[in-house]
Specification:
The chain has about 130 residues and is α+β, with helices and mostly antiparallel strands. The chain has a single domain (about 10-120), classed as HIT family, subunit A (2-Layer Sandwich), CATH 3.30.428.10. It has helices at about 20-25, 75-90; strands spanning about 10-15, 35, 40-45, 50-60, 60, 95-100, 115-120. The strands form two sheets. The protein has a five-stranded antiparallel beta sheet, with helices on one face. Strand 3 and strand 4 (about 50-60) form a beta hairpin.
């Protein structure tokens, strides 16, 4: 998988002009929006691995979980609450998974923190 990491990405910034997900959040690139508020933007994954496969993206640019700072804890937790809300709305409360991929070996290819919400089918363990 090709990395979309740009060499001049800021680890934390309101928006980053070189970031694919920042462009989606700003409306400069199309997406199938599912949810939006003042903190996050959620949209359908373009390569779904389950009937429900969404990405929940903080509007503030954070490169990855490994670069997150203590002040990012609120948005990390909040993203999970948004996932739970969408799970209820989609009727997948009997089983869904939330995942943060960290690093290229985990399949992390767009370097803007994003939470995967997967559900709507049996999810096996261990994943991958």
């Amino acid at each position: 998988m090709t990395s979309l990491l740009a060499p001049n990405l800021d680890y934390h910034s309101p928006m980053n002009e070189n970031c694919l997900f920042c462009k989606i959040v700003a409306g400069k690139l199309p997406s199938k929006k599912v949810y939006e508020d003042d903190k996050v933007y959620a949209f359908e994954d373009i390569h779904p691995q389950a009937p429900t496969h969404l990405l929940i993206v903080p509007k503030r640019h954070i490169v990855s979980l490994k670069e997150a700072q203590p002040e990012d804890a609120e948005i990390i937790g909040y993203s999970h609450l948004v996932a739970a809300r969408i799970g209820r709305e989609r009727g997948i409360e009997d089983g869904y998974r939330t995942v943060y991929n960290v690093g290229p070996r985990a399949g992390h290819s767009v370097f803007h923190l994003h939470l995967h919400l997967l559900g709507g089918r049996d999810l096996k363990w261990p994943p991958g």
